[in-house]
Protein backbone atom coordinates (compact mmCIF):
# COMPACT_ATOMS: atom_id res chain seq x y z
CA UNK A 1 0.00 0.00 0.00
CA UNK A 2 1.41 3.36 -0.99
CA UNK A 3 1.99 5.90 1.83
CA UNK A 4 -0.55 8.69 2.18
CA UNK A 5 0.31 11.83 0.26
CA UNK A 6 -0.94 15.42 0.24
CA UNK A 7 -1.95 17.68 3.11
CA UNK A 8 -4.34 15.16 4.68
CA UNK A 9 -1.70 12.46 4.66
CA UNK A 10 0.89 14.71 6.27
CA UNK A 11 -1.60 15.70 8.96
CA UNK A 12 -2.34 12.08 9.77
CA UNK A 13 1.37 11.30 9.97
CA UNK A 14 1.94 14.22 12.37
CA UNK A 15 -0.90 13.03 14.58
CA UNK A 16 0.57 9.52 14.74
CA UNK A 17 4.00 10.93 15.60
CA UNK A 18 2.53 13.02 18.38
CA UNK A 19 0.94 9.95 19.89
CA UNK A 20 4.34 8.29 19.95
CA UNK A 21 6.54 11.15 21.19
CA UNK A 22 5.91 14.53 22.77
CA UNK A 23 6.40 16.61 25.88
CA UNK A 24 4.52 16.77 29.14
CA UNK A 25 4.64 19.39 31.88
CA UNK A 26 4.42 18.38 35.53
CA UNK A 27 3.11 21.29 37.62
CA UNK A 28 3.80 21.80 41.33
CA UNK A 29 1.87 24.29 43.50
CA UNK A 30 4.18 26.60 45.46
CA UNK A 31 1.71 29.19 46.75
CA UNK A 32 -1.84 30.47 46.61
CA UNK A 33 -3.94 33.54 47.27
CA UNK A 34 -6.56 35.78 45.72
CA UNK A 35 -6.13 37.75 42.50
CA UNK A 36 -8.09 39.55 39.80
CA UNK A 37 -8.56 37.00 37.02
CA UNK A 38 -8.51 38.75 33.62
CA UNK A 39 -10.46 35.87 32.05
CA UNK A 40 -13.20 35.67 34.69
CA UNK A 41 -13.25 39.46 35.14
CA UNK A 42 -13.36 39.31 38.94
CA UNK A 43 -11.58 38.28 42.13
CA UNK A 44 -10.73 34.57 42.25
CA UNK A 45 -8.48 32.21 44.16
CA UNK A 46 -5.27 31.15 42.44
CA UNK A 47 -2.38 28.74 42.73
CA UNK A 48 1.17 29.73 41.83
CA UNK A 49 2.77 26.87 39.89
CA UNK A 50 6.22 25.85 38.83
CA UNK A 51 6.61 23.29 36.06
CA UNK A 52 9.14 20.85 34.62
CA UNK A 53 8.91 19.66 31.05
CA UNK A 54 9.77 16.08 30.10
CA UNK A 55 10.18 14.35 26.76
CA UNK A 56 7.72 11.46 26.50
CA UNK A 57 7.59 8.26 24.44
CA UNK A 58 4.20 6.55 24.26
CA UNK A 59 3.08 8.89 27.06
CA UNK A 60 5.89 7.84 29.41
CA UNK A 61 8.28 10.62 30.61
CA UNK A 62 11.85 9.65 29.76
CA UNK A 63 14.05 12.78 29.54
CA UNK A 64 13.94 16.21 31.25
CA UNK A 65 13.40 19.17 28.93
CA UNK A 66 13.92 22.03 31.43
CA UNK A 67 11.69 24.16 33.60
CA UNK A 68 8.71 26.34 32.69
CA UNK A 69 8.28 29.95 33.72
CA UNK A 70 6.29 30.34 36.98
CA UNK A 71 2.58 30.38 36.23
CA UNK A 72 -0.59 31.54 37.98
CA UNK A 73 -3.59 29.24 37.63
CA UNK A 74 -7.12 30.49 38.31
CA UNK A 75 -9.03 28.10 40.57
CA UNK A 76 -12.28 28.92 38.73
CA UNK A 77 -11.54 28.93 35.00
CA UNK A 78 -8.21 27.02 35.19
CA UNK A 79 -6.64 29.65 32.96
CA UNK A 80 -2.85 30.07 33.13
CA UNK A 81 -1.29 33.53 33.32
CA UNK A 82 2.13 35.08 33.82
CA UNK A 83 3.00 36.11 37.35
CA UNK A 84 2.71 39.79 36.40
CA UNK A 85 -1.06 39.32 36.64
CA UNK A 86 -0.59 39.47 40.43
CA UNK A 87 0.47 43.11 40.11
CA UNK A 88 -3.14 44.05 39.37
CA UNK A 89 -5.03 44.70 42.64
CA UNK A 90 -8.10 42.69 43.45
CA UNK A 91 -11.43 44.49 43.28
CA UNK A 92 -11.52 44.68 47.06
CA UNK A 93 -7.99 46.06 47.28
CA UNK A 94 -8.63 48.53 44.46
CA UNK A 95 -11.71 49.90 46.25
CA UNK A 96 -9.68 50.38 49.43
CA UNK A 97 -6.87 52.12 47.52
CA UNK A 98 -9.34 54.48 45.85
CA UNK A 99 -11.07 55.28 49.14
CA UNK A 100 -7.76 56.03 50.86
CA UNK A 101 -6.63 58.19 47.93
CA UNK A 102 -9.74 60.38 48.04
CA UNK A 103 -9.41 60.73 51.82
CA UNK A 104 -5.74 61.73 51.60
CA UNK A 105 -6.39 64.28 48.85
CA UNK A 106 -9.22 65.81 50.88
CA UNK A 107 -6.97 66.19 53.92
CA UNK A 108 -4.17 67.69 51.83
CA UNK A 109 -6.44 70.32 50.28
CA UNK A 110 -8.08 71.16 53.59
CA UNK A 111 -4.68 71.47 55.22
CA UNK A 112 -3.75 73.94 52.50
CA UNK A 113 -6.30 76.39 53.84
CA UNK A 114 -9.87 75.12 53.84
CA UNK A 115 -10.57 74.03 57.43
CA UNK A 116 -11.90 77.45 58.42
CA UNK A 117 -14.64 77.12 55.82
CA UNK A 118 -17.72 75.06 56.55
CA UNK A 119 -18.40 74.82 52.81
CA UNK A 120 -14.97 73.27 52.16
CA UNK A 121 -15.42 70.77 54.99
CA UNK A 122 -18.88 69.80 53.74
CA UNK A 123 -17.59 69.30 50.18
CA UNK A 124 -14.66 67.23 51.43
CA UNK A 125 -16.78 65.07 53.71
CA UNK A 126 -19.32 64.40 50.94
CA UNK A 127 -16.55 63.24 48.59
CA UNK A 128 -14.94 61.03 51.21
CA UNK A 129 -18.29 59.43 52.10
CA UNK A 130 -18.99 58.76 48.42
CA UNK A 131 -15.58 57.05 48.14
CA UNK A 132 -16.43 54.57 50.89
CA UNK A 133 -15.89 56.19 54.31
CA UNK A 134 -19.63 56.35 54.94
CA UNK A 135 -19.35 57.65 58.52
CA UNK A 136 -16.99 60.53 57.72
CA UNK A 137 -18.06 63.89 59.19
CA UNK A 138 -16.85 67.44 58.82
CA UNK A 139 -15.76 67.43 62.45
CA UNK A 140 -13.64 64.31 61.94
CA UNK A 141 -11.85 65.86 58.96
CA UNK A 142 -11.22 69.12 60.83
CA UNK A 143 -9.76 67.17 63.77
CA UNK A 144 -7.51 65.12 61.45
CA UNK A 145 -6.17 68.24 59.75
CA UNK A 146 -5.51 69.85 63.14
CA UNK A 147 -3.63 66.73 64.26
CA UNK A 148 -1.69 66.75 60.99
CA UNK A 149 -0.64 70.34 61.52
CA UNK A 150 0.50 69.61 65.06
CA UNK A 151 2.46 66.58 63.88
CA UNK A 152 4.23 68.42 61.06
CA UNK A 153 4.49 71.86 62.62
CA UNK A 154 2.76 73.22 59.54
CA UNK A 155 -0.02 75.80 59.49
CA UNK A 156 -2.99 76.13 57.13
CA UNK A 157 -2.17 78.15 54.07
CA UNK A 158 1.46 77.06 53.83
CA UNK A 159 2.76 75.24 50.73
CA UNK A 160 2.60 71.43 50.57
CA UNK A 161 5.55 70.39 52.75
CA UNK A 162 7.65 67.26 52.27
CA UNK A 163 5.74 65.12 54.77
CA UNK A 164 2.35 65.82 53.19
CA UNK A 165 3.77 65.38 49.71
CA UNK A 166 5.12 61.97 50.71
CA UNK A 167 1.70 60.94 52.04
CA UNK A 168 0.05 61.96 48.78
CA UNK A 169 2.55 59.97 46.73
CA UNK A 170 2.20 56.93 49.02
CA UNK A 171 -1.58 56.97 48.51
CA UNK A 172 -1.65 57.83 44.81
CA UNK A 173 1.46 56.29 43.22
CA UNK A 174 0.27 52.64 43.57
CA UNK A 175 -3.21 53.56 42.36
CA UNK A 176 -2.38 55.66 39.29
CA UNK A 177 -1.28 52.79 36.97
CA UNK A 178 -4.64 51.06 37.47
CA UNK A 179 -6.80 54.12 36.77
CA UNK A 180 -7.91 55.25 33.35
CA UNK A 181 -7.42 58.94 32.56
CA UNK A 182 -11.01 59.89 33.54
CA UNK A 183 -10.49 58.23 36.94
CA UNK A 184 -7.28 60.16 37.61
CA UNK A 185 -8.95 63.39 36.48
CA UNK A 186 -11.91 62.72 38.80
CA UNK A 187 -9.68 62.51 41.89
CA UNK A 188 -7.94 65.78 41.01
CA UNK A 189 -11.25 67.50 40.29
CA UNK A 190 -12.64 66.35 43.64
CA UNK A 191 -9.71 68.09 45.32
CA UNK A 192 -10.32 71.18 43.17
CA UNK A 193 -13.96 71.33 44.24
CA UNK A 194 -12.90 71.30 47.89
CA UNK A 195 -10.46 74.13 47.29
CA UNK A 196 -13.05 76.20 45.39
CA UNK A 197 -15.84 75.68 47.93
CA UNK A 198 -14.72 78.74 49.90
CA UNK A 199 -13.45 80.89 47.04
CA UNK A 200 -10.66 81.02 44.44
CA UNK A 201 -7.60 78.81 44.76
CA UNK A 202 -4.96 80.02 47.18
CA UNK A 203 -1.28 79.50 46.27
CA UNK A 204 -1.07 76.74 48.89
CA UNK A 205 -4.11 74.97 47.46
CA UNK A 206 -2.68 75.17 43.94
CA UNK A 207 0.57 73.73 45.25
CA UNK A 208 -1.26 70.83 46.93
CA UNK A 209 -3.31 70.13 43.80
CA UNK A 210 -0.19 70.23 41.62
CA UNK A 211 1.32 67.57 43.89
CA UNK A 212 -1.86 65.49 43.52
CA UNK A 213 -1.65 65.79 39.74
CA UNK A 214 2.00 64.77 39.68
CA UNK A 215 1.33 61.72 41.86
CA UNK A 216 -1.50 60.72 39.51
CA UNK A 217 0.87 61.08 36.52
CA UNK A 218 -1.24 63.88 35.02
CA UNK A 219 0.96 66.20 32.97
CA UNK A 220 1.37 69.80 34.11
CA UNK A 221 -0.61 71.24 31.18
CA UNK A 222 -3.55 68.92 31.88
CA UNK A 223 -3.46 69.78 35.59
CA UNK A 224 -3.77 73.46 34.69
CA UNK A 225 -6.60 72.73 32.25
CA UNK A 226 -8.54 70.69 34.80
CA UNK A 227 -8.11 73.26 37.56
CA UNK A 228 -9.34 75.97 35.21
CA UNK A 229 -12.30 73.84 34.13
CA UNK A 230 -13.28 73.25 37.76
CA UNK A 231 -13.70 77.02 38.19
CA UNK A 232 -16.22 77.18 35.35
CA UNK A 233 -19.83 76.57 36.46
CA UNK A 234 -21.37 73.59 34.66
UniProtKB/TrEMBL annotation:
One protein family per Pfam: TerB
Domain Co-chaperone DjlA N-terminal: 101-225
InterPro entries cross-referenced by the UniProt entry: DjlA_N, TerB-like
Gene3D superfamilies named among the record's database cross-references: TerB-like
Protein's UniProt name: Co-chaperone DjlA N-terminal domain-containing protein
Species of provenance: Streptomyces variabilis
Amino acid sequence: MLPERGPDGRTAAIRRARRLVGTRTAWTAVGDGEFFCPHCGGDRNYQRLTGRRRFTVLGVPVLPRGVCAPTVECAACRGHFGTDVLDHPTTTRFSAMLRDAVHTVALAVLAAGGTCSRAALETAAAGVRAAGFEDCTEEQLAALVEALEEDTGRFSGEPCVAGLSIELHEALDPLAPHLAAPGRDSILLQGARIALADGPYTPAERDALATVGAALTICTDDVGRLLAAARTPS
